Amino acid sequence: MVLHNFCGLDFGTSNSTIGIFKNNRISMVPLEQGKPLIRSAVFFDYEQEKCLLGQEGITKFLTGTKGRLMMSLKSILGSTLMHEKTLIENRLVSYTDIIGYLIRHLKVQAEKMLGHEITDVVMGRPVRFHDYDDKKDKSAQITLEEVAKNQGFKNILFQYEPIAAALAYEATITKEQLALIVDLGGGTSDFSIIRLRSNHQHDTLFKKSTSKVKAQPHKNRLEDVLSNKGIHIGGTDFDRLFSLKTIMHELGLGGKMQGISNQIQIPSSYYHDLTTWHTINSLYTYQTRRAVQNIRDFALEKRPIERLIHVIENQQGHNILNEIEQGKCQLSLNPNVNLDFSFIENNFRLSVKRKTFEDIIQSKVEQLIQKLLETVKEAQISSADIESIFFTGGSTQIPLIRKAIENLFPTSKIIQGDVFNSVGKGLAIDAQYRFL
Fold first, then answer.
1. Are 125 and 141 spatial neighbours (Cβ–Cβ below 8 Å)?
2. Exposed (0-12), middle (13-18) or buried (19+): which is 1, by Cβ within 10 Å?
3. Distance between CA atoms of 293 and 21, rounded to whole angstroms?
4. Is the N end or the C end of the chain the one with fewer CB atoms within 10 Å?
């Protein structure tokens, strides 16, 4: 019996998936509560002295278990934090090792389902880890490859995430078409224009061995990709702006305090750290508490700063961002939402309309649309040439973004892919082509 020791692995900012080839078909691996995805979160439980992954770790932390919660770890790749260490209780741990805990879990779960070791992997990557710095972009992929090697993978290849999504969509079509792939994730947004083939056409693109079709893509297949563009904007950016424009003002952002000779602005750095997953923990220090207490003494309005002190002393920054993220998701389905911050103060709630949220993220959406237009221009086609648009990634569910994109391509067929699994499935398909 031939053992297939390859997989496709999608390490995402918000969620991660992994797909394998078993019983002559691609299967996504159950990772959390029977579902084929896991939240990209690592929680160090100080009370039980163990590491918990995914939603289990998030829930533990948000319900009061003492520990350190790490999220949006993918956004560290390509940043200055990439090769640094952080304090986990009483020891220093590198961020790459922390990412490795999650990668290893995905690998182990896939091996359990497959029944043997997996050595080969196609990993997803955004079109750009870093928008402008090629050196940082390359370094991010090298670092992710090193993490994968440290977890036992031997042969590691990469594929752009929107191309992987295109392969997942391609497996479902019956005729050739020019498609726009829109992959809007938690940390990055990617666009690809690619000519897709039907299953029958696709078979002719493989080189044949003497006994069977050997899954090696024809070299000319690369010519089907007309353009690729990416930008470092995603769901976490919308969360950050949403938080800054709503709850952070209730904690004192934009307020005034008495300076030596006149009134001055309350420092905004604390609020920006509270809206970014991987900087929240830096606020939970004695020095920060003392500094904010001093601000309260001189603040013109005390109550907002007292709320901020409560958040920092009780390490509730993650609770705030969790509520913000959930509120954002609800606004994709409802015209308004009530954000519940009663963990800060009794009966503390904020009512927010969808229109308010849309106004908050408008500038980021315009940047996405500009990048999309650049993608079309690079492909040297017109919008009318796009026959279908394939949406994947959680941020494609935001109505403002969907409408803006659909308005640019009024004649195109709209295809909603699996929001969380299209990329992972496509990576597994790509792994089948390249390793089988």
1. yes
2. exposed
3. 57
4. N
How many distinct structural domains can be found in the chain? Answer: 2
72 lies in the same domain as 101 = yes
Which residue type does 370 have?
Answer: Q
Largest Cα–Cα distance in the chain?
Answer: 87
- Cα–Cα dist 427/161, whole Å: 8
**45 strand-pairing partners:** 50, 67
User: 164 and 267 share a domain?
Assistant: no
SS3 at position 294: helix
Q: Assess whether 431 and 301 both reside in one domain.
A: no
pLDDT of residue 90: 86
Which residue type is seen at 320?
A: I
Please say whether the beta carbons of 426 and 166 come within 8 A: yes
Q: At what angle do helices 95-114 and 134-150 cross, to 10 degrees?
A: 50
- Taking the C-alpha atoms of residue 54 and residue 62, their distance in angstroms, rounded to an integer, is 13
Q: Are residues 14 and 75 in the same domain?
A: yes
Q: Which residue has the tokens 């995905």?
A: 106
10-residue mean pLDDT series, the chain (436 residues): 84 97 94 96 94 96 93 89 86 94 98 96 95 92 97 96 95 94 95 85 38 36 87 96 98 94 94 92 93 95 97 95 96 97 96 98 98 97 96 96 97 95 96 91
Place of tokens 């509270």: 274
Assess contact for 92 and 128: CB atoms under 8 A. no
Q: Are residues 268 and 122 in the same domain?
A: no
Single residue among 317, 341, 358 that ends a domain in this structure: 358
Residue 129 and residue 240 share a domain: no
Query: Is residue 189, in this structure, part of any structural domain at all?
Result: no
Which residue range forms the structural domain that includes residue 26?
Answer: 6-174+197-219+417-435
Q: How many CB atoms lie within 10 A of CB 177?
A: 18
Judge if 13 and 142 occupy the same domain.
yes
Nearest to 103 by CA among 29, 162, 140, 153: 153
- The predicted pLDDT at position 374 comes to 97
Contact 312, 52 (CB under 8 A): no
Conformation bin of residue 326: beta by default, left when phi > 0, alpha when psi is -120 to 50? alpha
Cα end-to-end span (Å), the chain: 13
